[in-house]
Specification:
The protein has 3 helices and 6 strands. The chain has 155 residues and is α+β, with helices and mostly antiparallel strands. It has a single domain, classed as Nuclear Transport Factor 2, Chain: A (Roll), CATH 3.10.450.
């Protein structure tokens, strides 16, 4: 009986330990996702980094889906980058330090399951919620890459 109890305690202790390691790994993956999204997405769109930096965190097969009325407009990474370049060309200079202070973002959630993740991010402009973005990601050998983007623009 003592042997059974000892074996059960060891099993429970080891299960708890592996669960903690799993939680630690998930926290590490969430941090990696947060970093790649900030570097290749937030910094590019809202803080004036080079548009080409999107390629550092977005997979070449990325698509953005835009709801327009009752239709979906699907944009590839290249199409989206071209649109961003055109917008920047119309606006002129890159983002100023005053513009940088106008925006802030919050990660509302990051859900990770093995090599798949979803991030929900809120973008604020002048303190007002402007966008809620949903990014799906896959983890490749080179790290996490954004595969799709859906968003809501708050009016």
């Amino acid at each position: 009986m003592k042997t059974f109890a000892m074996a059960l305690m060891l099993q429970l202790a080891s299960s708890g330990f592996s669960f903690q390691q799993s939680e630690a790994n998930i926290a590490k993956e969430k941090e990696a996702i947060r970093n790649i999204v900030e570097m290749s997405y937030i910094d590019v769109l809202y803080y004036g980094k080079e548009i080409d930096d999107l390629k550092k965190g977005f997979h070449p097969e990325f698509n953005m889906y835009v709801l327009s009325g009752n239709k979906i407009d699907k944009r590839s990474l290249e199409q989206w980058m071209e649109r961003l370049e055109a917008v920047r060309a119309r606006r002129g200079a890159t983002t100023s330090s005053d513009d940088k202070n106008r925006y802030r973002h919050e990660f509302k959630s990051i859900d990770v399951t093995d090599y798949t993740a979803v991030a929900k991010i809120e973008i604020f402009r002048d303190g007002k919620l402007e966008y809620t973005d949903y990014l799906t990601l896959y983890k490749f050998e080179e790290g996490w890459r954004v595969m799709t983007k859906f968003f809501t623009q708050h009016r």
